[in-house]
Amino acid sequence: xxxxxxxxxxxxxxxxxxxxxxxxxxxxxRNQGHDPTATFSLFTRExxxxxxxxxxxGLEQALHYVEGLExxxxxxxxxxxxxxxPAFLDYLESFEFTGEIRALPEGTPVFENEPxxxxxxxxxxxxxxxxxxxxxxxxxxxxxxxxxxxRDVIDREGDGQRLVDFGSRRSHGTDxxxxxxxxxxxxxxxxxxxxxxxxxxxxxxFGTMAHSWVQSFEHERDSFETFVxxxxxxxxxxxxxxxxxxGAETAKAVAEENDVDLRGVRLDSGDLPALSKAVDEVFPxxxxxxSSGIDEYAIREFFDRDGIAAGFGPGTALVTSxxxxxxxxxxxxxxxxxxxxxxxxxxxxxxxxxxPGAKSVRRTTEGGEYAGDVVGLREESDDxxxxxxxxxxxxxxxxxxxxxxxxxxxxxxxxxxxxxxxxHRRIEDPEPYxxxxxxxxxxxxxxxxxxxxxxxxx
Amino acid sequence: xxxxxxxxxxxxxxxxxxxxxxxxxxxxxRNQGHDPTATFSLFTRExxxxxxxxxxxGLEQALHYVEGLExxxxxxxxxxxxxxxPAFLDYLESFEFTGEIRALPEGTPVFENEPxxxxxxxxxxxxxxxxxxxxxxxxxxxxxxxxxxxRDVIDREGDGQRLVDFGSRRSHGTDxxxxxxxxxxxxxxxxxxxxxxxxxxxxxxFGTMAHSWVQSFEHERDSFETFVxxxxxxxxxxxxxxxxxxGAETAKAVAEENDVDLRGVRLDSGDLPALSKAVDEVFPxxxxxxSSGIDEYAIREFFDRDGIAAGFGPGTALVTSxxxxxxxxxxxxxxxxxxxxxxxxxxxxxxxxxxPGAKSVRRTTEGGEYAGDVVGLREESDDxxxxxxxxxxxxxxxxxxxxxxxxxxxxxxxxxxxxxxxxHRRIEDPEPYxxxxxxxxxxxxxxxxxxxxxxxxx
Lengths: 458, 458
Fold this sequence. Notes:
- Chains A, B: Its EC number is 6.3.4.21.
- Chains A, B: Pathway: Cofactor biosynthesis; NAD(+) biosynthesis; nicotinate D-ribonucleotide from nicotinate: step 1/1.
- Two copies of one chain form a homodimer.
- By secondary structure, chain A is α/β, with parallel strands linked by helices.
- The first copy, chain A, has helices at about 20-30, 60-70, 75-80, 85-95, 125, 130-155, 175-185, 195-200, 210-215, 220-230, 245-260, 270-280, 295-305, 315-320, 405-420, 440-455; strands at about 35-45, 55, 100-105, 110, 115-120, 160-165, 190, 235-240, 265, 290, 310-315, 330-340, 340-345, 360-365, 370-375, 385-390, 390-395, 400, 435.
- The first copy, chain A, has a seven-stranded antiparallel β-sheet. A six-stranded parallel β-sheet of chain A has the order 7-6-11-10-9-8.
- The first copy, chain A, starts with 19 loop residues before the first helix and ends with a helix.
- At the A-B interface, α1, α2, α3, α6 and α7 of A face α1, α2, α3, α6 and α7 of B.
């Protein structure tokens, strides 16, 4: 391996992407003969700031992780250094997931307290996944949501403008760059500039030119001529290096002299709505692509000010979800086997109470629009209104459904997003969507709370 | 490979972590016979919000990338699909960096307009690295800075409390989780919960227990007993699952009955300063470790309210740098060879003007404290006051210095941070530190601006 610390997570080192406490608990579960079946639920207690919904994403990667986990020599060697027991390391070396996973399909709008994933397995298996599945599903959900907000503004106020992820240089590391491209595509983007994401996920890749191309020539005109000589019609010329309107004039002259219909010009600085109109006046035949500081708020302002664009290239604001950079996913033990039966469990920690038990999430519809969700107990699912959203994807450690491909997920996400009434899709102060806790789940929660509080009094 | 899309960036796919435009420009530079020597400079135009300084980090990973880059079969196959020319793909397959790299050593406080990295090489080499080096250096610098702010509050108001990164589940993907652990260590943390980061970088790893451990037993007391039975004195018991003070009493009883000095107890919810004092009253012998919502602001408030802690475990706020989640690094062409000589270059884009030419960054000191920096032209370095911060690390494609190890970088960062006068280290409204542009660089900038503006008038 020539890059020991850059592209670090190979299949060899992947199992170590976990918190030490997971492995320490696992060892103690095993050594102490305390390995009950457990159900863990992955959800968020509240939506990120300014968000009226999230778009679920990242399930495919989470399943790859669970299903493919293998502790090889390198991982075992390091865990030996950390003084884990040889018997426990033998267990890890032969680790295999034998449990059940239920999940919300990718692309589904999701709200607070609704599980994105539920894992039921011996606790010495289910516990292990916590860090990695929160990480993958939380991040992709964050970015799919951010992307959907931009697509939603365009759906309502724009003209089908192309959205391309330009964020790889500002994503938090390389995995984020690649996964952001995938998640943005789920959320309604058309592609990415990230070549690795194209290779990994077949997301369409796009690329224009940088200021360095222009500056590397003495005259902007020479830089345009040379690029068009190389790429012909497949050229998007960056016209703001010195003066955007003059750059548009030069681009037009080069296009005419070479008898080429350019694919477009890119504007990357200044008062973008005003400049786009100025460019359109001097060079009306060309498509304008807009980058620099683009997010849902900038796109809305661009339309409000009658800017002209065929597409936008959001970067930093997309891949870091700058205005709200976290989905606070948790993976909580909600049920555990005692005396041969699954018993609901919860914690009472202040401000962090969780609803006990494996869940059902049902969504009701009126006139094709979403009309409220109910979160209940798994066993009451059939008695609750609406459609069940959680789907069993792994049983006895085996995949029991084929996951949809990325195009299908993306289309589904677009369709389902539009079913959410528009007041919940506002990019500021969205109306909260109703997520009701079922009567049975409320009763279970209150009963268990009383039991636990009484126990603490003793 | 069993996880094609989770741990994606292996040495095989690493070269594809780039924006498509880099490769398209590269191909055109090559095919068009336009391959001048170029200098690119990586810097930020302004500090992130609320920041009075940044701590440079990530150089080691950036150099691994540049030096280890190899386009193998898998990368070439995908680029063939994207219709790059065979001759260009041959060039990539035999790609080797032959240029020069100057850099700011990791752990150095750094400010706006100061290069963290300068690359001089044929433009068809130097251009290629843009996406990856901004990504790696930008992210680690972001997190090292966030970490340094927390350590700085403790240095000034605390008592040497331990800081451990608990953020892996909320980092933006896996690479961010691992690199955040490294960068936080550079910034003054004592370790991480991330096992992969321990393996990769020898960062000390720490782990306690989760609520699920406690909930998996019918009685909290049994859960504590069992854990202590397994780990003895090496136990940190999580005491807030049901009631923090009652949990502290139970922990104390278990410790006494087993005649064990616990390593500590962890508090993860509620009014943490108040609860820490309450816990200290019922169990004064034990160390309190504090997690949940920890950042520099929470630590300051914790001390202001006389909370009692031996350590803190910041998570989300650390690894996403939530209050300011981006370092807007850029990698700009600042000089290019024309007629056999290196000529300074710049763009005039509104709000994004760059200073031309390869740079010198010099730092002056008064009474051991930093007293202002000067950014000038590389060739005037010897005539400027203070100490030169940029160091040549790669010459003719070969490493010419040994990079310091992580412990050395961390110590250096702590030492240098304390040399920055305290008014620049305030966590809110810090006093801006002086970064003067040298007279020669100002003159060069103005002269070049006039030349470029005149050229646009033609």
